[in-house]
Amino acid sequence: MAWNEPGNNNNDPWKNRGGKDQGPPDLDELFKDLGNRFNGLFGGKPSKEGKGPGGIGISIVLVVAFVIWFLSGWYTLREAESGVVLRFGEYTELKEPGLRFNPTFIDKVIPVDIQTVRTIPASGFMLTQDENVVQVEMEVQYRVLDPKNYLFSVPDPTNSLRQATDSALRSVIGNSRMDDILTSGREIVRQSTREELEAIIEPYKLGLAIVDVNFKDARPPEQVKDAFDDAIAAREDEVRYVNEAKAYASEVEPRARGQVNRMVQEATAYKQGKILASQGQVAKFDQLLPEYKAAPEVTRQRLYLETMEQVLSNTSKVLVDTKGNGNMMYLPLDKIMQQQGVLPATGQRPATDYNTGSGQTTQPTQSNRPSRGDRFNDGRN
């Protein structure tokens, strides 16, 4: 009899294979069995119809799964980070630092540090403009400026920046002389490298900002290092000598200018003195001329006596008596007057008053000078 003929036949090969009920599972029976199992875990009794306490267990499982999913979506972005949100793999927005919610299996958040300053070294042997080989070491400091471009513009922005740095450095070194690179042109090389690097990375939109470029070291190859050290030392000596010469010039020049000004002032004063003295002599002769015209002989005699007075006042004088009885007697007037305290010790005899003969030690002036009549008076009436 066939297994599917009418009657109480229970020979379904899918339900009773091998002597047991091993047919393909029914979905209703499968859910019923799962409900009974979970119901047993939570203290309920199994239900043959899949209702009652078994349905409550499934609901509890779903609630627990939802709670786990909800809690797993919370995350925290640090102060230095910015979150790049991808919804089903597509960029949507940026998240600010703080406590945020991200629906699990829907959105993905990639934190990017946008404040930390990172460093890329660059070094190597390079050819200069004057066809010399120099070993240069440089360090580039950068930070992330745009997280979106940093993640999606190029596959590896750090490697791209490293290659751009090497290219910019070789371009600048190739247009510079070796002496400038090793000595006074280091700052120019550093600034030029930064400008060249920023111009190279701008079209690629790497999302990076150059903070600084540090020129660490530049030296010639070891084979010629001693010669270049001597050249650098000579250049430093040149700079030192120039500075010393400038300092010496700064010290001597003001002193020389002061001396020049003093000499000019002295010459001007001497000139003015001579002019005034000449004018005084002219005025004196202008006053003497009328007297000379009035009495030429008397004026001539007076001028002679005044001249002799001026000459004899600065010389030693001896009085000699030649009218004696064969003996010559002389009197050193200067010594006698010095012993009496009339003349100073210098030996210069001041002019005396010819009228009184008192030997008064007063310098003759225009006011106390004897008149012409008194000057020729020998004391006799």
Automatic annotation (TrEMBL):
Listed Polar residues bias regions: 1-13
GO MF annotation terms: peptidase activity
Domain Band: 72-232
Membrane protein topology class: Single-pass membrane protein
Pfam family, one: Band_7
Chief site of localization: membrane
Membrane-spanning parts: 56-77
Record bears the keyword GTP-binding: no
Lineage: superkingdom: Bacteria
Basic and acidic residues bias: start-end ranges: 371-381
Gene Ontology process terms (BP): proteolysis
Keywords: Hydrolase, Membrane, Protease, Transmembrane, Transmembrane helix
Region listing for Disordered, in residue ranges: 1-26, 346-381
UniProt-annotated location(s): Membrane
Biased segments, Low complexity type: 356-367
InterPro entries with a match to the protein in the record: Band7/mec-2_domain, Band_7, Band_7/SPFH_dom_sf, HflK, Membrane_HflK_N, Stomatin_HflK_fam
Family, as annotated: Belongs to the band 7/mec-2 family. HflK subfamily.
Subunit-structure text: HflC and HflK may interact to form a multimeric complex.
NCBIfam families xrefs: hflK
Record's function text: HflC and HflK could encode or regulate a protease.
Record's protein name: Protein HflK
Naturally occurring in which organism (per UniProt): Psychrosphaera haliotis
Gene name as annotated: hflK
